[in-house]
Write a structure and sequence with these properties.
single chain, six-stranded antiparallel sheet
């Protein structure tokens, strides 16, 4: 039936998947929605989906072993962690975006980077949740949320709930899993659509 009255939800509900992404992803996982869709669409070819993201691809493992350093391979493919204060971007203050080292997926922006004191690049949010996967990680003695790139499926780091406003999140990311594209080079390298982040 046609809706008669519509009330906009309060401001704290808006963009909940961005401002409370851990809660949202936990709800989404527990709801069974993704598992259901995977089961229903298993083996089906969906030509119209993700065609605009077809440029973001992961090389074969053989290619990765040839092109990546031992440390980069260990961090991105084996869920490793670079030592604090050793990565090239932990203290980078230049304007620009950080992309996946293999696929070039746009992941984080300098506009959401902050000094966390941890020795790793830290961000309050990704550029676009579409390019981020979050998984429960029980590899240590407590539960963490692992962050991976969607198309390259690289291990990037973890996200914690001790960050600053507005999200309260800290995306703690390994420098070695990223490439930095300075603002001045974004258009030339095909990332002009994200220049709005700096206006």
């Amino acid at each position: 039936m046609p809706a008669k009255v519509f009330y906009k939800a309060e401001e704290y509900h808006q963009n909940f998947y961005k401002t409370h992404s851990i809660k949202y992803n936990y709800y989404r996982y527990r709801s069974g929605r993704d598992q259901f869709l995977k089961k229903i669409w298993k083996g089906k070819k969906l030509n119209s989906i993700n065609t605009k993201y077809s440029n973001y691809k992961k090389p074969t493992d053989k290619e990765l072993r040839k092109t990546l350093s031992n440390l980069t391979y260990k961090v991105t493919q084996k869920n490793g962690t670079e030592r604090a204060f050793t990565g090239m971007y932990w203290d980078n203050k230049l304007e620009g975006i950080y992309v996946d080292i293999l696929s070039g997926e746009p992941l984080f922006s300098s506009t959401n980077k902050y000094k966390s004191g941890t020795g790793w690049p830290s961000f309050t949010m990704p550029i676009d949740e579409h390019f981020i996967l979050k998984k429960e990680d029980k590899s240590l003695f407590y539960k963490r949320i692992e962050v991976r790139s969607k198309y390259a499926d690289n291990h990037l780091g973890h996200v914690f709930t001790d960050g600053p406003p507005p999200t309260g999140l800290r995306y703690c990311i390994n420098s070695i899993a990223l490439n930095f594209i300075p603002k001045a080079e974004m258009e030339e390298k095909g990332y002009s659509k994200y220049l709005y982040l700096f206006k």
